[in-house]
Structure formats: C-alpha cells, structure tokens
Amino acid sequence: MVTQKNTTQSVYHVGGIKGDHCRDRIEHTLSHLQGVASVKVDMASKQVAVSHDESLTSSGIEETLQSLGYSVQG
C-alpha cells in the first residue's frame, strides 16, 4: 500500500483522449501499476494526474500511456 509521506503527484498532458472509453482505459490501466495510489483524467484539459509512490518513475507511467496508444507531451 502507498503511504502518504512517500507519495508524489505527476501530471501529464496526453494526446489522443477522445471520450469516456479513453478515460476509463487510462484510469484502469494506470491504477493497476504497482505504486499508483490514484489516477484522475481531466477530459477538458487532456491531463492525467497520477498520485504514486516515489519509487515509480515518470518514464514508467509515460511508457504505459504510450503503450496504450496515447502521446505524452512535455
């Protein structure tokens, strides 16, 4: 379980989010990564906010998003 003191939040600008199916797919997939506490997709801004353990790197989250077919913009 992720503890509060070791949790950080990362926000990603994600291209290719088109609807509720995309939101659900991203939230479901990322929430199953070890170390992820929560995932919130903002459809209007195309942003994905991930609260995660510090041991989970941003590159791991970005690679997962890209493997789903989404682009991650810096």
Walk me through what this model shows.
InterPro entries: HMA_dom (IPR006121), HMA_dom_sf (IPR036163). This is HMA domain-containing protein. It comes from Sporomusa silvacetica DSM 10669. The chain is an alpha+beta fold and 74 residues long. It contains 2 helices and 4 strands. The chain has a 4-stranded antiparallel sheet. The protein is globular.
Largest sheet composition? 4 strands, antiparallel
**Ends distance:** 29 Å
Task: Using the alpha-carbon principal axes, give the shape.
Answer: globular
Strand percent estimate: 35-45%
Tally the beta strands: 4
Query: What is the helix content?
Result: 25-40%
Number of helices: 2
- Helix-strand makeup class: alpha+beta
What is the H-and-E element order? Answer: EHEEHE
Strand order of the largest sheet: 2-3-1-4
Q: What low-confidence regions span 5 or more consecutive residues with pLDDT below 50? A: none
What is Rg? 11 Å
Q: Indicate the mean pLDDT.
A: 92
Core attributes:
74 residues, alpha+beta, 4-stranded antiparallel beta sheet, 35% strand, globular
Put the structure in a nutshell.
30% of the residues lie in helices and 35% in strands.
